[in-house]
From TrEMBL:
Residues 212-626 form the Amidase domain. Gene3D superfamilies: Amidase signature (AS) domain. One of its GO terms (molecular function) is catalytic activity. This is Glutamyl-tRNA(Gln) amidotransferase subunit A. The chain crosses the membrane at residues 41-61. SUPFAM superfamilies: Amidase signature (AS) enzymes.
Amino acid sequence: MASPMVARSLVGAGLVVALAMLVSGKHTDMFDQDGGRLDLWMSIALVVASLTVLLSIGLVTSEVPIPPTPRIKLGTHGYDLTPVNSPACSGFVLRVVARIVGSKVLGHLIIRPILNNNNPWMLRDLARQIASERIPIMSLPFCRVDGKTVTDDMAKTATDALQQGLPRSYTAKDIVGVMDYYIAYTSGAVKPSEMMTQVLEGMEKLKYMSMFMASDKESVMEQAKASDERWARQAPLSVWDGVPVSVKDFIKVKGYKRSNGMTLLDSDPVQTKDDIMVKRFREAGAIILGTTVLTEYGRCPLGYNSHYKGPFNPYDESCYSGGSSSGSVCSVMTGLVPVGISFDGGGSIRLPAAFSGAFGLAPTFGRVPFDSDASVTSGNVHAGVNTATTTDTALAYALLAQNEPGHMINQVYDGDVHGPPRPHLTDFDKIDNFEGLRIGVFWDYFNDSDPEIAASCKAVITELEKRGAKVVEVSIPHLKAMSLAHGLNISVAFSALEETHFYHRDDLEPATKIQLQMGKTVTGTELMSCNRIRGWAAQYVKKLFAEEMDVFITPSCPIVAPRIAKDALECGESNLPLLSVVMRYVPLVNLCGFPGMAIPVAYSEKEKLPISVQFVADHWKDALLLRLSHFVEKHMFERVPPKHFVQMNLNSS
């Protein structure tokens, strides 16, 4: 029997011929008005592709066999991350490839060789060794701790902040954060309704950025007038009263349809209740400005959604904004809101922050309760926020991270007896002395980034060392397997939604169709292996946190925001090699459930685009990340306002 390499070559050659035939027929009317009928060129091309694949049946196996003796010894140290080996395409070619790959007959036989080419055998090879060490399989990366680890005094730092506020972590004059709103309303300098008039005008000016899915102006002004009345009585509900907030269109917002980044259908219902996160903001007096665009069902970390022709990077509209929480981060960085609700299943809070110069906290897995189906179908998704300042992040965390009795998180954590440890903001403003703090660095991993980015992030380490912190060199083995385990795990979770969210959806982006096929190609053995590796990785890194380090540092992304390819504007792009690069520092958080935070630290000399540093901490140590972010923002970061920005005036005219 021919080797898998020969099989891949046969398939590849056939597809090249098929695509060439399709391109030669591009001038013809390929589809009818409904996009459903194939013309002669498409039919011929599919026949060529089909024959080629059928010739290779038996040459392509689902899984590459592994010998009884391990090929990779568990725990072997060394840096092994490499970019994914996969074709990339966009525009017309992407549409054609997606149609072929989406075929039930051909999809598996085309996608599986690509997957095999990235060595998924290593997952099974390592998983059987993990099983022999009796390390439990982990599907939900929960970590249970003694409830007494957070005292009443510690918990009070979070609840007090909601009524009294926090020190401002910034000096930039263009920023209008939560505390700026609070101070202006307290002094009577301006009313919420006056501010919301400005915000709505700003939304109209920035409409070309395609950030918002929907905004009900009447509802916004009704909320603002209700806030006016509370402030007139000197009875605000919290520091959030009258502050605008945007919501990633991934959860329910009362009065709005939910798109999940897909095209809206007439049959899509208007939501009749709010998600927990939205409800908490409303109860604190915040004004829900509207829902924001995300990549199609949060699939892509680049940020562009071809259905809605945006969003774009606030610093350079020719670049990606980062995703999938692209609309949320853009609504923050353009000055419209201090905070945008976001979610992170594969860097979708941290990468938008890195690309667009925002702050992005992906809290400990299960820290912030929410109601979306992703909260129960995926062990990867962290609920959090994108903000313009550390102070705003901390105030949002204090509000959103409180326990929700009866929620799935509490039930899984301890049978809904107490729930996770209470959130706190201990030592948030202690940013001049870091004596005893152990900063873990895996230098080969850290330096696998653009030299300018590595240098900017090293400067953070240097400044912390000056204030007493200690650098500890650490090594984390099998990063390649961990990255692959995260990628396949989230692909399977995504594909599992096909029969509900994507059923009869012919209007999906081409790359989404390819992604769905990828998840369906993963075998049950591989998925179990992914979760064995998750359990091992969480245990390994947790031991590092216990014995060697308090926090782990990397760049947030190894490159600055990439440019959007011209033909990607039409229907997006499928570019797994690029995604594997931008997601290089993502998996530890999503695979193992640790909290991670992306913090802007500088701007690139040539492109003038943001550079971001990432800190990762042990489970439930979110407050440490906020303290470090406060330090970086106050002592190191000099903000440059984005090109696309609306300045809010906190004085009534």
